[in-house]
């Protein structure tokens, strides 16, 4: 008995053809997002796999075939309203917010400031709503630096955001520079650490498309690159890892094959970055973490 949610399927392919010979050489192969690869051997007589393939392909990727998503079709009823399970204001209160240094703002209640941010945001108490709008105009996709977590004892915070829109001309934004300094002032530290999760060469390259990183004009701040590759490189590395463990492991070249995937190198860099951030915060220094858009690596 196999339990494979349709949403967990990433690819459906036909295996073998009319001239295929040998046991299990004809059928379907299903690649799942949870690293499972499933192969189903079928009989060639009567084109038995055609209907199965078309139905599976159709319902595994409904939007590509003009169908509604499964959740909207079933419309399963629940006793509790799922939209109210998570209460952001209560979660901020659990962390001790708002306080005399941080306030809650509903500027994004209609998702007009940033369509990928929640409706309630925690920002420095000294910041004004018009400041947030000007900062959003200088941050990729409007993703301004906002509080994600605060240390209860030393009040150091982890703030997340996207890259500044510096561009090739090296544009500046006084409001953005001042806003980051307000984050630093919120827990009275002399230096704000900005962790750019990207490799420095990627950050420089992003200037060509209007992005970039914080330069020397951000006073009382230091910039550290964590050298973590983007999601596309990570996905390719994971695919290579999957290939060397499925359908069988080649023991004689295992270590060299593992090294060639670079997977452990990526894991090391992610863990190293997390440790650096945790260490800085535990020592009482607030940090800002971002990459390009601030939703994968961060």
TrEMBL record:
Active site: 291
Residues annotated as signal peptide: none
Entry membrane topology: Peripheral membrane protein
Molecular-function annotations in GO: phosphatidylinositol-3,5-bisphosphate 3-phosphatase activity; phosphatidylinositol-3-phosphate phosphatase activity; phosphoprotein phosphatase activity
Ranges where the Tyrosine specific protein phosphatases domain occurs: 261-298
Locations listed in the record: Cell projection; Cytoplasm; Membrane
Superkingdom of this protein's organism: Eukaryota
Amino-acid positions noted as binding substrate in the UniProt annotation, renumbered to this chain: 230-231, 291-297
UniProt entry tagged with the keyword Plastid: no
Segments forming domain Myotubularin phosphatase: 82-298
Keyword rRNA-binding found: no
BP GO terms, sorted: mitochondrion distribution; muscle cell cellular homeostasis; negative regulation of autophagosome assembly; phosphatidylinositol dephosphorylation
Record keywords: Cell projection, Cytoplasm, Hydrolase, Membrane, Protein phosphatase
Alphabetical list of InterPro entries matching this protein: GRAM, Myotubularin, Myotubularin-like_Pase_dom, PH-like_dom_sf, Prot-tyrosine_phosphatase-like, Tyr_Pase_dom
Gene Ontology CC: cell projection; cytoplasm; membrane
Family: Belongs to the protein-tyrosine phosphatase family. Non-receptor class myotubularin subfamily.
Name by which UniProt lists this protein: Myotubularin Phosphatidylinositol-3,5-bisphosphate 3-phosphatase
Organism annotation: Takifugu flavidus
